[in-house]
Write a structure and sequence with these properties.
With 140 residues, the chain is an alpha/beta fold. It is 31% helix and 14% strand. It is built from 5 helices and 6 strands; from the N terminus they run E-E-H-E-H-E-H-E-H-E-H. The strands form 2 sheets. It has a 4-stranded parallel beta sheet, with no helix packed on it. The chain has a two-stranded antiparallel sheet with strand order 1-2. Strand 3, helix 2 and strand 4 form a beta-alpha-beta unit.
Length: 140
């Protein structure tokens, strides 16, 4: 499911309101195999809201490219048992640093990944090596 916005118009206040909280609390997320949230200005707090969802067992693909989840968001993803069945994770262009890369590489929950897109982040060579050691050909 491709989401194209995370904002709704609040007529009472006359502004756009962020709606990640109700989205990530929705029981309907448990039915999805693919969630594409590319370029929606998500941050680490939004990832933590997603991490609070009790059932993402059908989820096989999660696209978070070109957001602002940073290292804290990567760490939250790495600690999500709901991602045990995830096969594809795209976190390109999220200002993830070495610490976030190491957390993803050491995650006990991301062992099924067939694709990890993590370019366009500030990750040094030695941590790329750690990612390559863990994910091999899945790393892009």
């Amino acid at each position: 499911m491709k989401f194209t916005t995370c904002r709704i118009w609040d007529q009472m206040c006359g502004i756009y309101a962020w709606w990640t909280e109700p989205l990530f609390a929705s029981p309907f997320l448990s039915r999805l195999e693919s969630i594409d949230l590319e370029g929606l200005e998500l941050n680490a707090h939004d990832v933590e809201l997603l991490a609070a969802h009790p059932d993402l067992s059908r989820l096989r693909e999660l696209v978070l490219a070109d957001n602002d989840i940073r290292t804290e968001g990567a760490i939250a993803l790495a600690n999500m048992p709901q991602l045990r069945g995830l096969e594809s994770l795209d976190v390109r262009g999220n200002r993830i640093t070495d610490r976030g890369a190491r957390a993803l590489a050491q995650s006990e929950y991301l062992g099924q990944l067939k694709e990890l897109y993590i370019t366009k982040n500030s990750i040094r060579d030695r941590n790329w090596a750690v990612l390559e050691s863990r994910f091999g050909d899945a790393l892009h």
